[in-house]
Amino acid sequence: MQFTFAAAAAVETGALVVGATEGPELLPAAAKAERASRGAVGRALAASRFTGKSGQSVEILAPAGLKVSRLIVVGLGKAENFDAAAAEELTAAALGRIKSGTETEVVVDLTGLKGSKLEGVDLAAHLALGAKLKSYTFDRYRTKDLEERAQTLKKITISTGEAAAARRAFARLEAVADGVFLARDLVNEPPNVLSPVEFARRAKGLAKLGLKVTVLGEAQMKRLGMGALLGVGQGSERESQLLVLQWNGSRRKTSAPVAFVGKGVCFDSGGISLKSGAGMMGMKGDMGGGAAVIGTLRALAARKAKVNAVGVIGLVENMPDGKAQRPDDVVTSMSGQTIEVLNTDAEGRLVLADALWYAQSKFKPRLVVDLATLTGAIMVALGSEHAGLFANDDTLAANLTAAGKAAGEPVWRMPLGKGYDKLIKSKIADMKNIGGSHAGSITAAQFIQRFVQEKTPWAHLDIAGVAWQDGEQKPLIPSWSTGWGVRILDRLVADNYED
Ligand code: BES
Ligand code: MN
Ligand code: ZN
Prior knowledge:
The protein is an alpha/beta fold. It has helices at 28-36, 40-47, 84-98, 120-134, 146-149, 163-188, 196-204, 218-224, 227-233, 277-280, 288-302, 348-363, 377-382, 394-407, 418-422, 440-449, 486-496, and strands spanning 2-6, 15-21, 25-26, 57-61, 70-75, 105-109, 155-159, 212-216, 241-248, 258-268, 308-318, 329-332, 338-341, 367-372, 387-391, 411-413, 431-432, 458-462. Strands 8-9-11-10-14-18-15-16 form an eight-stranded mixed beta sheet, with helices on both faces.
């Protein structure tokens, strides 16, 4: 899809999207259409009980007096409540309507909107971003109905008096959206295709954006003492990998990087503690944390963010096998701490333990954020509305909370504490990899915290409830996988850690 920005031009063909705030108060383009139709548009709005409330829209095909094939009048609600998320959802919803039609072009004209949280250049850019996010498809494995599924819409034009500036603002947002798409693709990809090695191979393609990509194999990880990560992968035919991505965009070449660490379990069968058939479905997405990390690094590189950043992704496949790790095994992590593995299905924390330790020892980061589809328990607590946030640092927690809110990927802080930490005491080793039957997301976070080096500001995002969507699709996410994590992390960096 082509995205263009232009000063309000006469719309000849295709669809036209115009707006009204509550009342309805028609914005200039809507008022113009109403005049051209000699009142027909107004009658249509009245017949549909259109009041301009947010979420309302009226679609008029071949409106009298206008050349366009389709006019969509959307409600913006109260101007003062209209923000970036509302703008994005508005174009996404309008595109959803046009999808079944034959139009190849659409013009969106909300110029003249006043008193909203988002105006001018930012409004134009976020309208385009909504269209972009909604345009995502994953049809690689379909051989049928391709014609019906093909997008007929080729071009979207956003009306704006500041076209050049809007184009620049959108270029930045599009870089982030491309990162989201990469994350969505990786999570959607089936596990017979996306092995740890294949994941790493795809990452190597990002070198062209200026990212430094390094891959460690099992032999190297063994030398580093990564017994926790390697134990998870030892029942798989596929080789485990540690993927390291570096973006050096800061003018201060040696400034400490921000570090992102991702759980990259390409398939989680549970291992010897095998999951049920139903519980295993969707476990191709258990690398969603890793996907968010690679998507973020891609976004930072594509928009040339003025920051030093590093991504570390532990890539493994958790399988049952004669060589697989057993419940009761004890492994030694890179940190030197020993772990009694009482349940091989609590594997994500084992992978993160070594990936986190490596990230801190190697890069001495100014902060580290890990992302993982870590526990079913976080879905019990928060559903799919928030990701779980755990942190040892109030500033980082506040920054993440603000970034999540602004980027449309909200997080909710959960507690940590000594009492919870006690629950992972082992009878024979430094710790065990499961707690009791309660507070499962918190004991998982306590486990991870044991691999956070003193004084490193650290946050952990449990994204098990938000990395994919099994129920109703969210407006901006036309796919099973969501790409969750790229937008919040990009925003975190942009708002706090760039030169
Ligand atoms: N990958 C799962 C967590 C998960 C479950 C993500 C459902 C998304 C949907 C993780 O590896 C896991 O199996 N966790 C166990 C931990 C338990 C054995 C302590 C869980 O949540 O049941
Ligand atoms: Mn598991
Ligand atoms: Zn898992």
